[in-house]
Structure prediction request, 428 residues.
Amino acid sequence: MKKIRGLRWQILALVMLGTIVNYIDRNTLGILAPTLKEQLHFTTEEYSFVVSAFQLCYSLMQPVAGYITDLIGLKLGYFMFAFLWGTAAALHAFAGGWQSMAFFRGLLGVSEAAAMPSGVKTSTLWFPAKERSIATGWFNTGSSVGAMVAPPLVIWLSVSYGWQVAFVVTGLLGVGMSLLWVSLYRNPENHPRLTKEEHAYILDGQQQTQLAKPSVKKVLGKRKFWAIAAARFLTEPAWQTFSFWIPLYMVSTRGMDIKQFALFAWLPFLFGDLGCILSGYLSPFFAKRFKMTLVNSRIAGVGIGAVCMIGPALIGLSSSPITAIFLFSMGAFAHQMLSSLLYALVTDTFEKQEVATATGFGGMAGYLGGMIFSLIIGQLANTIGYEPLFACLSVFDLTAFAIIALMLGQRGKDAAAPTLPANAASAD
Prediction:
């Protein structure tokens, strides 16, 4: 079989495509929220319950999905979960009220939980340590691209054919992605089209030993894991807010109709893409320019992202809905920058067979934070307004940066070490 040069980038494109489909399915609810509130008679509080059903199931299932993926392998694990999430997304079309919508939303949360752990694991298996921040940045752009593509696609389907068709069509994209994945994906050691030179490059600096089974106890026993989990808990509410609450806010508070919103809804997620891409190249730049270790270079990027989260805090000072969209865009740029670097820090801290498990537990912490914040929005948005709640997001991210810097930052002799992650010599 003919070999393909640079195959790792094609595999990265495949997992990025899966992330795009994942976020189209995930964001369909938020885009249709104004329509669903009218058609199914939701209150803002009940809508927060629907959102939280997804977040709770997603958060609890992430470590399970990550562990299953580590245990049964990336090819089978991702196929199974992608098929299930596509089916669950399509079932939203049969909802008759907020309770049934919450049930289907919970099914989606259970099945989508494997997406990010699988993406991080793909980056770990297919890229050498020095390229992993670039790889995680690029595959994580899929979340922004999916969220950017979703508004015009979903609104067009809803206006043309009804909201039920919008759920069915986007759900079938997930089923199709599962079939594409199982047809095309192989691990590096089993891929017939991977050149020997590229395989050697991927494995450069890695010790070739038989990988042990993933250990939940070992993952949770690391102090560094809890630093990452705390940061995810504090930062994830921002992305959940952008995904599920911007449409409702812009229509109910800023006076846009759903068609007007579709013209601008993609902007925050375009900026999110730019944040993902920049984060990948920022880490190697800091490492080379300022002689930082890879870990410290990633933390520096997290700090820049946290400072840029000032955007959502200023939304209350703006009277223009277009300005509000641009401030949300600044926040999306900031969040995706620091989010991608937090994923990269997982690859620096854990061994190959534990990456998906660690990402899953970190994701659980993040989505618990997102769920709590969504419930708070549901309770307070109609009384104190959305803007003070948006301002909290910048405080959360600055706090997360402080935790990461204090608990993961390398100092003294460690900070002067060669720019390789700690486990590069053993199992990375």
Residues 7-39 form the longest helix (33 residues). Confidence is low (pLDDT under 50) at residues 417-428.
